[in-house]
Predict the 3D structure of the following.
Amino acid sequence: MDPGSTKRQADLALSDAAIDWLVKLHSGRAGKADHEAFAAWRKQSREHELAAREAETIWHGIGIAGKKVQRNARAKLTRRAVLGGVAIGGLAVAGSSLLRPHLFADHSTGAGERSTITLPDGSTAFLNGDSALDVAFDAGQRRLQLLAGQALFQVLPDAGRPFIVTANGGQARAVGTVFDVDIRSHEVVVTVVEGQVDVTAGTQPGSGVLAAADQRVRYGADRQPSPAESIDAESETAWRRGKLIFNQRPLGDVVVEIERQRHGRIMITSARLQSLEVTGVFDLADPESILSTIEATLPVKVTRLPFITILH
């Protein structure tokens, strides 16, 4: 076994041991001697102390500190189980889906990847990182479903076959245009670069909103489309040029953007932090610098763990 693998196994063993200690201390059955024993355990080495700190961060992050945990004698709550709990909590906060539509999508990208797709009619779809798209063209219409992430569409004119992109219960309908569909943490944003796009969502009849170039429309899974608002479409679609441009963007949405460009999940521990506004121009290829800037300019601390990053 190589030295790196041996050290990794040792680190995992320490992490599991630290989690075991916290489970015991919060079980309702721990006494003073148990707390003193844990304090002695974490003083054994620097590695023990780091494992204890990481376990405490994870424990508090999923909100189980201070609760009495009944431990099943046949089931061990290991580091992986607790990290799984953090990931679930973090995904819920950040708005990401626990299901991975990428597995069954016609086209998909992983974190940090971008893809250019030539569609059956000659139109083009550009997929951002961590995105998934289904394509269903027929003689009457050109229909696509954005299952996750973000895509920009350059649509060739075809008056007899409208170009329709559905996402999270709404749809954007165009004939010949350039527009972007972005599934964010709590809404879908349709941005028009050229031409016009009709956006519909919800169940109310006549709820469609027509957006022109340099306008965007927002909608939620159970929310009617917003009125079209003026924006700089080139800034909104800067990801196509390798940049991310944020102008007072909520941190919750920024986290979604960062997750598309890096492996591992990001957890925001409170709704207050989610609503903090981020402004700046960032390099798409360096998502870690975005996290560093957030920590330097906002009242946010970034804790990086092996499988998850926590903003708290």
